[in-house]
Write a structure and sequence with these properties.
Layout: H1 4-15, H2 19-26, E1 56-60, E2 66-73, H3 80-95, E3 99-105, H4 108-115, E4 118-120, E5 128-130, E6 133-135, H5 146-151, H6 153-162, H7 169-180, H8 185-198, H9 203-216, H10 223-247, H11 254-261, H12 266-276
Parallel strand pairs: 2-3, 3-6
Antiparallel strand pairs: 1-2, 4-5
Helix pairs in contact: 6-7, 6-8, 7-9, 9-10, 10-12
Length: 291
């Protein structure tokens, strides 16, 4: 309950803003001599809805309960520390449970930036200090032993995702693909899909992973696995079209080659392959104008 002493303890600063200078001196803080002081509205309620959405939020209960907020960060963003501080303060207010922020990055510069403590307050006294945990290429392990990957496929997958830009990621991906051959499909399928999605921004690593999946894990039926196999079939049929044209001694211009290899329609590729056997020039396989 708000009582008169509660009111007096804060309202005296509204009535006498210069009081803070005296308090600062008593507390051993730097002298505060502002040019002006403005009394602001005290209602911090947000009238307009503001979307603030953490990427993933988990609650761990046991000997010690905690909330884990996980944020994926692909680049430096000067606005993020303020948002992260808001998330932690809100979570602590709502759940009365200690919150922890984990930021996952794919490049060293972003990871280094995200890991820096951010003091919130005047330079001489931080009322709050934001201190995220960061997982990235600077501290995630290179798991290149299939047995180690088999023991914790999720950790191996995250290791591959965070090291996606490092050419040495091939070793992690090989170990993971080998390990997944010996685990139940219910375990392997989500790992395959999440790894595929996590590598999507790094073309070389993504293509290497997809090639591994097409060969090593052809028996899995997940949507990503089916997509990989479909892509593999389309690529093989495109190569067949070009091989037939070249075997017949026909000149294959670059624009024809690019159009064929860029096509992912199996039915159209099949028609082109049929025509490639009889056409007088490579361009004639497109006779009906289909792309």
């Amino acid at each position: 309950m708000v009582n008169s002493s509660h009111e007096a303890m804060h309202r005296i600063f509204q009535e006498y803003p210069g009081l803070f200078a005296g308090v600062s001196e008593v507390l051993g803080l730097p002298s505060i001599q502002p040019a002006s002081v403005t009394v602001l509205p005290t209602d911090l309620t947000e009238i307009q809805p503001v979307e603030r959405r953490v990427d993933t939020l988990l609650r761990f209960d046991g000997t010690e309960s905690l909330l884990l907020a996980v944020e994926a960060q692909s680049a430096k963003d000067p606005n993020k520390p303020a948002s992260w501080a808001y998330y932690l303060a809100f979570l602590y207010t709502k759940y009365k449970t200690p919150p922890l922020l984990l930021v996952v990055c794919q490049d060293g510069a972003t990871a280094e930036w995200a890991a820096r403590p951010v003091p919130i307050g005047p330079g001489w006294w931080a009322s709050l200090t934001l201190r995220p945990l960061v997982a990235g290429p600077h501290n995630m392990p290179f798991i290149t032993d299939p047995q180690e990957a088999r023991a914790d496929p999720a950790l191996a997958s995250l290791a591959a995702i965070t090291h996606a830009k490092d050419p040495a990621v091939d070793g992690i991906l090989k170990a993971l693909s080998t390990a997944l051959q010996d685990v139940p499909e219910a375990v392997a399928a989500p790992i395959i899909e999440l790894t595929t999605q996590g590598l999507d921004s790094t073309r070389r690593a993504a293509e290497f992973w997809r090639n591994l999946m097409a060969v090593d894990l052809s028996f899995y039926k997940s949507s990503i696995s089916e997509e990989i196999r479909a892509e593999g079939r389309a690529e093989g049929r495109a190569e067949d079209v070009l091989l037939v044209l070249e075997a017949r001694g026909l000149d294959v211009p670059d624009e024809v080659r690019e159009r064929v290899t860029g096509c992912d329609d199996p039915d159209l590729l099949r028609r082109w392959l049929t025509r490639a056997v009889t056409v007088a020039s490579a361009e004639e396989i497109f006779a009906d104008g289909n792309a």
